[in-house]
């Protein structure tokens, strides 16, 4: 499982944890999030995220 970080605000999406506050179940891969997924903190689109190394 990987983590992805919003380059604009630093929000981290962790595939292992999901995001219960936004009804994304644990184990949901970033690639499986809808194309219109937006950062819950700043509203940036998926294109603003990069894999956290």
TrEMBL record:
* Domain Rubredoxin-like as annotated: residue spans: 1-52
Q: Where is the organism placed in the taxonomic lineage, from the top?
A: Bacteria, Bacillati, Mycoplasmatota, Mycoplasmoidales, Mycoplasmoidaceae
- Origin species: Candidatus Malacoplasma girerdii
Give this protein's Gene Ontology molecular function annotations. electron transfer activity; iron ion binding
Q: Which family does it belong to?
A: Belongs to the rubredoxin family.
Pfam family, any one? Rubredoxin
Tell me which InterPro entries the record gives. Answer: Rubredoxin, Rubredoxin-like_dom, Rubredoxin_dom, Rubredoxin_ET
Q: What is this protein called?
A: Rubredoxin
Q: Which cofactor does it need?
A: Fe(3+)
**Superkingdom to which the source organism belongs:** Bacteria
Cofactor binding note of this UniProt entry: Binds 1 Fe(3+) ion per subunit.
Q: Which residues bind Fe cation?
A: 6, 9, 39, 42
Which terms are listed as keywords in the entry?
Electron transport, Iron, Metal-binding, Transport
Q: Which Gene3D superfamilies match?
A: 2.20.28.10
Establish whether keyword Transport is in the entry: yes
Q: Name one GO biological process term.
A: alkane catabolic process
| Keyword Transport attributed | yes
């Amino acid at each position: 499982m990987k983590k992805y970080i919003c380059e604009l605000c630093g929000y981290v999406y962790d595939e292992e944890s999901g995001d219960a506050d936004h009804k994304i179940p644990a184990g949901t891969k970033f690639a499986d999030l809808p194309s219109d997924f937006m950062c819950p903190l700043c509203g940036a689109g998926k294109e603003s995220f990069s894999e956290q190394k």
